[in-house]
Amino acid sequence: MELQDKHVAILVEDLYQDQEVWYPYFRLTEAGAEALIVGTNKKEFKSKFGYPITANVTVDKVSSKQFDAIIVPGGYAPDILRRYPEVINLVKGMHREGKLIGAICHGGWVLCSADVLRGKTATCFFAIRDDIVNAGATYVDREVVRDGNLVTSRKPEDLPAFMREFLNALAG
């Protein structure tokens, strides 16, 4: 799969879930896409397991116009990410423009806060199921769910299915 002309934002904050950032990053890079690590208000973040990542850019310096897609990884990071209006505005912009949005595990929290789940079918880590439903989505317990421009998965073990679906959607 050749995606040289595609630009994807991967959101990060402290306590991100390691595999849910690095696995998509490497798969996207392998497919030829530009995967840009987008952080909040600093350059370096630590994962749940202490693994560092350096953001290429902060969220206040980007816009939805620059990207074809965005991925919101899980961990505890989404609870921090959704506190930033710039993150919410970026996700809302991506949704408004019909661009691809991916969320894994607790990443659905950011989608709830951005109000992009209303009328969609989605999955997530079981602990935030009620949040997803209360945000207006129909919840299903499957390894990957695609509904229009939205691709969601439940947990790190679902990453192969998530990335197959995400890459297929990105390829168009």
- Within CATH, the superfamily carries the name Class I glutamine amidotransferase (GATase) domain
Instruction: Assign the CATH topology.
Output: Rossmann fold
Give the helix tally. 6
Name the shape in a single word.
globular
CATH class: Alpha Beta
N-to-C series of helices and strands: EHEEEEEHHEHEHEEEH
The Cα radius of gyration reads: 14 Å
CATH A-level architecture: 3-Layer(aba) Sandwich
How widely separated are the two ends?
A: 11 Å
Secondary structure elements and pairings:
Elements: E1 7-11, H1 18-30, E2 34-39, E3 44-46, E4 52-54, E5 57-58, E6 69-72, H2 77-81, H3 85-96, E7 100-104, H4 108-114, E8 121-122, H5 129-134, E9 138-139, E10 144-147, E11 150-153, H6 159-171
Parallel strand pairs: 1-2, 1-6, 2-5, 6-7, 7-11, 8-9
Antiparallel strand pairs: 3-4, 10-11
Helix pairs in contact: 3-4
